[in-house]
Amino acid sequence: MLKTFVLSFRLKNTYKTNGIIYALKALPLIKKLLPESLYADAGLKQFANIISILIEICSAFIGKALYVLLMVFSLCMVMPTATADSFVHIFFFLTIIGGFLNTNLFNPSKDKFYAIVLMRMDARAYTLVNYLYFLLKMLIGFLPFTLIFGTKAGVSPLLCLSMPLLVCSVKLMVAAFSLHDAKEGEKVRNENLPTAIVWSGTGICLILAYVPPALGYAMNQQIFMALTALSIIAGLCALLYVLKYRHYRRLCQTLLTPGNFAMNTQNAAKVTQANYQKKISMDATQSSDKSGYKYFNELFMKRHSKLLTRSAKRITLIALAVFVVTAVMSVALPDISRQINNLMLTFLPYFLFIMYLINRGNVITQAMFMNCDHSMLAYRFYRKPEVILSLFRERLKYIIAINLMPGAVIALGLPALLLLTGGTTEPLNYLLLFVSIIAMSIFFSVHSMVLYYLLQPYNINVETKSAAFSIANWLTYIICYIAIGKQVPTLIFGTAISAFCILYVVVGLILAYRLAPKTFKLRP
Amino acid sequence: MKLLIKDIKKNFENKEVLRGASFVFEKGKIYGLLGRNGAGKTTLFNCINEDIKIDGGSVQIEENGSLRAIGSNDIGYVLSTPVVPEFLTGREFLKFFLDINKKEQSNDQSINYYFDLMKIAVEDRDKLLKDYSHGMKNKMQMLVNFIANPSILLLDEPLTSFDIVVADEMKQLLRHIKNEHIIIFSTHIMELALDLCDEIVILNQGILSQIEKADLDNEAFKDKIIAALRGSEDA
């Protein structure tokens, strides 16, 4: 047993170490310093090895600390019931959910695939020893935090000590039950693809965990103690069942099919691509009387209407509905009318985030790559500068038009609402609301296209090879997110954002025209 | 017309894949490029096609006695994994391709002619390319490269995905067009190389060299090629 454990731990550590070195090599500046031979570099390997072990140790604690703090402790503080009661109540029901969603035995992990399928280690020994290690990590990982937060919440220390045991017992019971259900290993439920029953059970347990305490009912510590004691007894029986179960090899074979998990980034990328290709729709009405690249692009947009125009139309309708409802309310209720008027004059930053959310640019550019450019860029004629730029223009026109559908409704809706709710003394506000929304809509369209053409991050196997693209997208999100809730007079924000958008569009287009012929290519 | 490869160098980090490969490819011949796994055949193609930057040397075309750089219209490159725009039907892809090449009217008649040429069944012509089989995608990729009619054709393991009947048709087609083209053909299949190619070029240790058949029979020639490919290992 111990030998199996050491072996599997070393195996895991070997590729985790390589993973760390690989990650180091992905960093822009550091990669220049590191040679190709560094996977064989003993010193660096030691360093990565230590990091890998540190990560293993931290991962045993950090997740559980956050879980107890955020899901249990912080919420039980706001419940009307006694804090200690809420704590054990919430903990109990969440533990049931965890028992089903995190079984370890039924997780088709990469570790298992390497060890059992590729390295042909003994399935039973490997599974059991790693399962026991998993339970041990649960015990040790939970203990400090159930003690710290539990006693803080007023739970008796004895109960706090027994909580990690409850976690393990519930997991064992679920495991024994699922193993029994799996018979000889031919019917295996993948824990990452929960069934409808598990989902509904999760929903019910979530409701049971939080709603009764919020309404003033929670189990007391005595009941919790009794339930825990029962669970531990049942858990011990379950442990015996798990240890005695014979068909782990079969079980692992059923679980570790390629469809169940993405082995590596290339597979994951292929899955993404296959999903995008499923979105291509074709019917007899889709034709184009254009020619050349315009023909090509028009058919692309039509075949992807499911992904592109249809959702934009839906958003447009929703925007229209929201506008009508708000308009009616503001006419009927003077109180709300005043608030909306105020909103129109100070809450424009919020719309930066909304415009970000309804922008279809990222979906469009990803579809462009997955269903079109990844193959077309292999053709030399497609990489001619004039071709890249003419398609860039065509595509941009479509994206702007698609995004302007909801954009126009919002841009007209906001000044209309302002007018309906009593207007403003500064007529410039009407214009600014309109112009800034249109500017933002165009800005996001241009932004996603420029990012795609300048930082095209994929290689021919649709693997992402550049972090810059992700970072840029992430930054965009953060900036838009920060804008939420900022109150700035529309006069100021509207002017600033419009000016920024116009400037960005101009600079972005110049950059794209200058650089895209060089940057828009498949990554090696 | 000639394709002049002169002293091409390509390194990936510290690994020298091409170390001064030189060769002159002439029009009217099919060249079989042989090399062991990882010898750099695809890298060489990528260098000729300017998909990757070369670290040294030059790739040029000699035409009517004068040298010039390679242009986009000079090269057709058929990859071993076929790539086609999945969202178009076979017919639409051909129409688009004929449009942009402005060679001729892209009417149904000319499109059907090409489909017939590649023996693509009538019922498949209006299907989306994403639903084509691997072999059919490969046919389409080959077809558009024939249509564009570049003077240099680089074919990376092109016939392996075809069934034997189609592979034979393709061979006929290549022989048919070879007089007007420089065709370079990478493969692992010795029989194919001997059967189809006029010259055998091997890529070994980052260097290109021609294996002369002289008056050897096929068996002896094969042995010579294998010896040449193995050579470096023993050395």
Structure description:
The complex is a heterodimer of chains A (524) and B (235). Chain A has 524 residues and is mostly helical. Chain A has two domains: 260 residues, no CATH class; 224 residues, no CATH class. Helices cover 77% and strands 0% of the residues of chain A. Chain A contains 20 helices and no strands. In chain A, α1 packs across α3, α3 crosses α6 and α13 crosses α14. The mean pLDDT of chain A is 86. Chain B has 235 residues and is an alpha/beta fold. Chain B has a single domain, classed as P-loop containing nucleotide triphosphate hydrolases (Rossmann fold, 3-Layer(aba) Sandwich), CATH 3.40.50. Helix content of chain B is 35%, strand content 29%. In chain B, the strands form two sheets. A six-stranded mixed sheet of chain B has the order 6-7-8-3-9-10, sandwiched between helices. A four-stranded antiparallel sheet of chain B has the order 2-1-4-5, covered by helices on one side. The longest helix of chain B is centred in the C-terminal third of the chain and has 17 residues. The radius of gyration of chain B is 19 Å and the shape is globular. The model of chain B has no long low-confidence stretch (mean pLDDT 85). The interface between A and B is medium-sized, with 31 and 31 residues.
